[in-house]
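---------- Forwarded message ----------

FYI, see the Short-chain dehydrogenase record below. Original note from H. follows.
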Amino acid sequence: MASIASKVVLVTGANTGIGYETVKALLESKKAYRVFLGSRSIEKAKLAIESLHKECPETTSTVEGLQVDLTSDESIEKAFEQVKANPGYLDTLINNAGSTFDIEYLAGRVSLRECFTKSYDVNVAGTHVLTSTFMPLLLKSADPRLIFVAGLSQITQAAEGYFPTPPVAKGWPKKSQFERRMG
């Protein structure tokens, strides 16, 4: 059970990937945390929490699911109200949730405009709305922290195709080796 002095942390996009590993690191810490595991789906949050309990059985921290979809103001507001009701403040907000639509574009499932619009909605507007909404709870903390995780969704594959940057042929549209492999 978490101690009274535990820090309260919200990690968005925490049911998989870097968000999941961040929550896991908090649970493995010697310090006690109360962690809100943010996920678009409460079912996926619950599955992630089950896995975390198996991986971190000795934790002194607590973790609970928080449904939050960055494309929905209503979802963000509901998540805010849940944290506001209990514990009423937030020490750390880790903005990790994000999406990439490049693969959908390359596969012809969305237009270039849809690719940019969807990406902006989640990664820029959604993150900004969530941060602005939760700011009053962060300001109640004696030691608030605001962290942004960005641009890591395909870093390994991108590194293979972009670094060092391969020569690009004349003409338009430009296609990198990375896009050819992914498309």
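H. also flagged this: The first strand starts at residue 7 and ends at 11.
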